[in-house]
Amino acid sequence: MDENERMVGYKQAQVASGNRSIDIMNGGDIASQWMLNSHSATPESNEHRNGIGNFQPPEDWLPITQSRKGNSWTATFHLLCSGIGIQTLSLPLAFVYLGWFWGSVCLSVAYIWQLYTIGLLISLHESVPGTRYSRFLQLSMAAFGEKLGRVLAIFPVMYLSGATCVFFIISGGGTMKLFYQLMCGDCSSKHPLTTTEWSLVFICLAILVSIFIPNLHSLALVSFLGAITAIGYCTTLWVLFVANGRLDNNIYNPSEAVDSEVGRIRSIFYAIGIVALSFRGHNVVLEIQGTLPSTPNRTSSNLMWKGVIASYLIIAMCFFPLAIVGYWAFGNKIPTNGGILTALSTTLYHHVSKPVLGLIYVQVVISCLAAFQIYGMVVYDNLERAYASRTSKKCPNVTRVGIKIFFGGLTFFISVAFPFLPSLAMLIGGVALPLTFGYPSLMWIVIKRQRPKSGRWWLNLGLGCLGIGLSVVVVVGGVWNLAYTGLDANFFQPR
């Protein structure tokens, strides 16, 4: 396919300062020529080099887009596995600081908001004829320009993916240790493994699984297991709380959870951060849609919407009962570190039988292992793209294995060197929050070129600015909370 054929579907091509761009003044779409050359969905367009001479590998060379044989079921599994995580267990803690009413309001607003921005991303995935934006970074560069889009997106995307994987290692390793102590009893004191050693066991399992998964679509079965276990431990927990009842002398007054007015303000910021971080995963939405086939009669957005509707109905049935019932069961006694998982491991909630508690631990570990693969796939894709761009050839299997071992070793090293990272969850997530609540609305305005000052234009502008503002609030709250409470390296340890 030559250059003229690739430009079919666009309004007007023009040359300015050696760069090509698309005229969008008549209601068309926007995409830089660099994005067209780099990320066109057509195989032929991958044979050329961009304006600076770098080879752009074909989409079927890379893990995320190597296979486009997915369907609405696989999309549902990926969305559930990446959307329900260990951070969900801290939702009742947000109610401790916000109370029944404001806690429910914040959780509901966040749920509707992120569902709306997911809809924007789905519609933008194929907003330019002949091009599929199968990565958040691609869409960002198409909307904001190559340089600015890369600056705005590359750090949050890679940062969120890497930090989330580190968090999975810490959580998974700590939970494996709790499971061993629970099942072994006295034998655990003879040759006990440290938390670091259990984290090593976890990352070895994660790397082993990743070696047998060449692309995101082939991860469907693992995502199914991760989704089932994530739904399983969330449902088991809130049903267990209802069956066993509340703790004695529970207090449900947010003002009594802190000792000063300043602490009250800080705790509100912290609670908003917990709620906002529960709805992470936008940095993999476009990637998941990229695994779906697309035809003129049935675009990928149709299949993706079915997956989103199914998955987020289930997510709502996990998040809301767990948050509300968890707060009802524990009140203000929920531990600030580890949330419900820590509470179950202490004498706070001694009604849980050993088999049930062991089942919860196993489900948490499997969920972490599965979700690690989805977020790790974003990093593998970027590293393989860098390799292919430099060598102008497909990444061989040996190199792919090396990339996965390197990434696993790096995340393990970070988890060991910084075991207090869960204490920085608010700070880590605040930097990446624009991916969920800010950028999608702004990218819609730029790419769709809506009529200025229309109702939809004001809505997206307001949500975009508010999302970025929320990111600043969460970061400030995270720094403030860190300065007050300090770092805690025993996030998942029973006390």
Task: Report on this structure.
The protein is mainly alpha-helical. It has helices spanning 3-6, 33-39, 72-83, 91-124, 136-144, 146-184, 195-211, 220-244, 261-278, 285-289, 300-330, 339-344, 354-391, 397-417, 425-432, 434-437, 439-448, 455-485, and strands at residues 13-16, 19-22. Strands 1-2 form a two-stranded antiparallel sheet. The longest helix has 39 residues, at 146-184. The chain is globular, with a radius of gyration of 23 Å. Its main location: membrane.
Mean pLDDT: 77
Q: Are there runs of 5+ residues with pLDDT below 50, and where?
A: 1-53, 489-495
Number of strands: 2
Read across the widest sheet, the strand sequence of neighbours is 1-2
Structural classification: mainly alpha
Note the beta-strand portion.
under 5%
Radius of gyration: 23 Å
Distance between the termini: 65 Å
Name the shape in a single word.
Answer: globular
Number of helices: 18
| Main pleated-sheet profile | 2 strands, antiparallel
Helical coverage, percent range: 55-70%
- Succession of helices and strands: HEEHHHHHHHHHHHHHHHHH
